[in-house]
Every structure is written in structure tokens, then in C-alpha cells.
Design goal:
The chain has helices at 6-26, 46-52, 86-91, 94-99, 105-116, 122-125, 134-145, 150-153, 174-185, 205-216, 220-245, 278-294, 336-346; strands at 69-76, 158-165, 171-173, 257-260, 263-268, 309-315, 320-326. The chain has a four-stranded mixed sheet. It is of the alpha+beta class and 354 residues long. Strand 2 (158-165) and strand 3 (171-173) form a beta hairpin. Helix 9 runs antiparallel to helix 10 (205-216), helix 9 (174-185) packs across helix 11 (220-245) and helix 10 packs across helix 11 (220-245). 30% of the residues are buried.
Amino acid sequence: MDRIDAETYQSLVQEFSGKVSAWNADKRSNFNIKAADDADAHMVDHDKNDQQMSTPYSLSIPSTNDSRIKFLPEEYVFFCYRHMPFLKSMMHSTQVFCAFNLWDPKGMENLKYALSKTGVSLEQLDQRWRSMKKQSRTDLRNAILKGEHSRFSQLDLKISSFCKNYGMDFKVSASDMVYVLLSLLESVHPEGSKNGNMRRPTMNFSDAFGAVYDALHGNVNIIRRGIDEAIILQKSLVQQCKELLSSQTRNGTSSGIKTLGEYYSAKLERPDPMFLQPFALTRLGLFILEISRTSGLGRNKRNRQNKPIVISAINQEKHRVTIVGIDVEGGIRNSFHAAFRRACERNNVASKHD
């Protein structure tokens, strides 16, 4: 679900870049759209224009109907960073969460220290990308994307991607749209959610697919709703990871995540209701496996061997359990698939194998 090798990804980017050029040629506005950084496209330096304008009315302005798709050779991997405070986006991104061990209070201190070396204030980092000062954005790009800061240069925090305009002030990247579509599809859950500032709405499957269709056809209100849904899920996912990992005891074991021979096991006793759904539980399992790969789990933190994981969430009210098993590519030889299938058959439990 969240995995694709770099070579395949780059080949797809190259393939779609040609299609994007054709799309933009068909969508050109009658306005003279200013070519600038995606966060600065709405800004005009009046003093500079006053000095350089060849005529009194040669002003570049964006179109309210601008629906171009922009190719981004260097895009942050941070989660929905255009739609939430930049520091929060970093904290809720898998790469940063794992690299700085953000489940540990010292990890947050280390992240803030590393960011202080970029010269950008915490006040600026608490803003959304579009609201930050241009110099702050430049300093961050130089430190993170250009690799001028040693702590960030060790991490893979950039990809090539695309960003679509929806008018002048709303932009959605390719990864944003993936999260939008998945969160809308996963909105079919009557239990609701206990986290965030809003309860996730209940929809039947027909309504959910209708919402996805509308989002793909440019319904901005639906896309915004999907982004809000995705942010709620990601915050809950990170919080659940923190609770599992912070339960480490002095002898190195965990009451939430255990190493059982050839695989990991995690159990959520009283989870947020959204983790009773397979998609959210799978996302959580993938998050834990990424932590295992980069930071290690269990007593021996240096042992970063890939292992499958079985993760379960208990619905105390309905006396039901949702169980997800996730295998790993390139991991140790195991009979995980067969064992998982036999366990389901012995207990007469319906299951789906991808």
C-alpha cells in the first residue's frame, strides 16, 4: 500500500511528466500566469516591478481558474505540509518520526535543535508553508532539500512529484491526493473517532465512492474534507505509535509490541475506533515496521532485521477483534503467509490475502 521501489517511481514520474505538459497546454489561461515558487505564485514584488516594467500595465497575475499541474523536481516528503503547520507536518511524517525517535521526549528536543541550525525560528515553523516568510522557506530548502545541514542530509526527505492548482490559493500534491482518496474511502465506520477536533462522519460505501469520484473531478470542498480526514488519521496513527513504543520497560520489552520468534506482535486493547478498520490498522503496522527497519525494536536495538508483524485491535463493546498480518520484502525466510491462513481457517474467520 505504501511501498514502491525508487526505480519504478522515477520511471512513472518521467512517464507522467509528458502527460502533465500536454494537460497544461490545454488548460492555459488567458491571464499571464507568473512562474514562481508554488508558495509565492500569488505575490508580486511591487518595487521590483516598478523599476523593470516596460509598460505601466505589464503586471503578472494568477488566474482564479488556474488548474495547472506543476512538476516538482524536489518535493518534501513531509505529510500534507501545505495544509498544516510545517513543524507538525515533519513530526507526523514517517521518515522524521523514525529518524529522530519522536516517541521519546529527547527525540523532539533533537529535532528542534537540528531545525535551530537552519536559522528558522520556531515561530515560523509553526506556520503553514504558504504563510512562512520567503527567507525561512529558502533556508529550509537549502538545509533539507539541498543537504546543507548534515543531520538532514543523511535522510531521504525529497522526491520528484506533481502539484495541482485549484484556483489561486489551494494546491494539492500527488501524495496529498492519495491520502485524500484513501481517507474518504475509509470514512465508512459508524463508530466515529475520539481524536481530533471533529468526529469522522459516517458514510455508506456508495457515498464514499461518490465522494472519491467528486474529489477526482476537482470538487474542492470534498478534497478539503478529505485532507482534514487524512490529518486526523495521521495524528491518531502517530499518537498510537507513541503509546506502543513509550511502554518500553527497563528490560527492553514492550507491553504493546513483542518479538515472537520470526515476527512482531502488537495488540491494541482500547484503540481509537478508527483502528478497528483494516486500512488504518495496516497503516499502523507499516509505521511500526518502518521503525523496526530504521531504529530497531525490542532488547537489541542494533538488530534491524525485517520481520513480519501481526497487529490486532480489540473492540471491547462488540467483543470483536480486527487482525492484520503484514509480511516484509527482503526479510528473513518465513512461513508467515501459510501460518496466518491456517490460523484463520482453524478459527473459522473470514480473511483477505493480498
